[in-house]
Structures are given as structure tokens and as C-alpha cells.
Amino acid sequence: MFTDEYFMKMALNEAESAFEKDEVPIGCVVVSNNRVIARSHNLTETLNDVTAHAEMQAITSAANFLGGKYLINCTLYVTLEPCVMCSGALSWSQISKVVIGARDEQRGFINKNLKLHPKTEIVTGIMENECSFIVKEFFKSKR
């Protein structure tokens, strides 16, 4: 029941919330022991803050929930590959696993040859079509 797809659907729900707020539709959830401890979506327009990416919001929320800055034994599910800023924060958090829906070939950290914490497992391509579709639809509506 608690598969990568199960939790990615929750992240996709967060992306849909962002879409409804006219935010770039990226969503994520942080899971610990099969329990969602944080969820967020992009809030850069709402908060007028370029650092208010879904991942940054979720990292802060999860750390507050756990009472410490490290997200060891946690998994972040995110609909779009994290950017350089978010990958740095994820690395510092020492998160155990990052599950990515769709790759971001232009702005994502992987093509920039950046690494997360050495112990962080990375999985890509979970619900890739659904995760990339919502972003494409958002930007299509802007043109």
C-alpha cells in the first residue's frame, strides 16, 4: 500500500494546489516511517519569496516536526527534480531518500553534476508523465 506511487500522488495533489494558486505546480511530501510529516507546494508568488520552493517549505516543516535539522530516515517525494538551491538544502538535511517524479533537464541539479548527501538514495521517474504534464499545462496557459 505505501509505495512510491502512493506518496507521489500526495505530492501531485500538492502540485495541483499550487496550480490553483497560480504558482508553478510543484508539490512534495516528506515521509517518515510511512507517515507524512510534511507537505507543501511552491509559494514563491504567494509569499513574494524566491526561496519559497516546495522542497524548502517541506524541509523546514519536517525539521520542525522532528525537532531537529536532519531528516535521516525520511523520504522526500517531489513532482519535479529539485533545483540547485533545493538540492543544497536537501544535502545539508542529510535526507535518506529523494523520489523525483519528472526530471528538469534545464534547472535540475542532476544535469548540473551536483550530488546530494553521500548516503541519500535518489529514485527518478515515479509517475513521470503525470508530474511533467501539470508543469507543461501551467506554462502552456502562460503563453
TrEMBL record:
User: What name has this protein been given in UniProt?
Assistant: tRNA-specific adenosine deaminase
Top-level taxon in the UniProt lineage: Bacteria
One Pfam family named in its UniProt record: dCMP_cyt_deam_1
Q: What is its EC number?
A: 3.5.4.33
Keyword set includes tRNA processing: yes
Name the Gene Ontology biological process terms.
tRNA wobble adenosine to inosine editing
Can you tell me which residues bind Zn(2+)?
Answer: 53, 83, 86
Record-stated family: Belongs to the cytidine and deoxycytidylate deaminase family. ADAT2 subfamily.
Give me the reactions it catalyses. adenosine(34) in tRNA + H2O + H(+) = inosine(34) in tRNA + NH4(+)
* CMP/dCMP-type deaminase domain location: 2-112
Q: How is the cofactor bound?
A: Binds 1 zinc ion per subunit.
Q: Which GO terms describe its molecular function?
A: tRNA-specific adenosine-34 deaminase activity; zinc ion binding
UniProt KW keywords: Hydrolase, Metal-binding, tRNA processing, Zinc
Assembly state and interactors?
A: Homodimer.
**Cofactor(s) needed for function:** Zn(2+)
Q: Which InterPro entries match?
A: APOBEC/CMP_deaminase_Zn-bd, CMP_dCMP_dom, Cytidine_deaminase-like, tRNA_aden_deaminase
Q: Main role?
A: Catalyzes the deamination of adenosine to inosine at the wobble position 34 of tRNA(Arg2).
Q: Which residues form the active site?
A: 55 (proton donor)
**Keyword rRNA processing annotated:** no
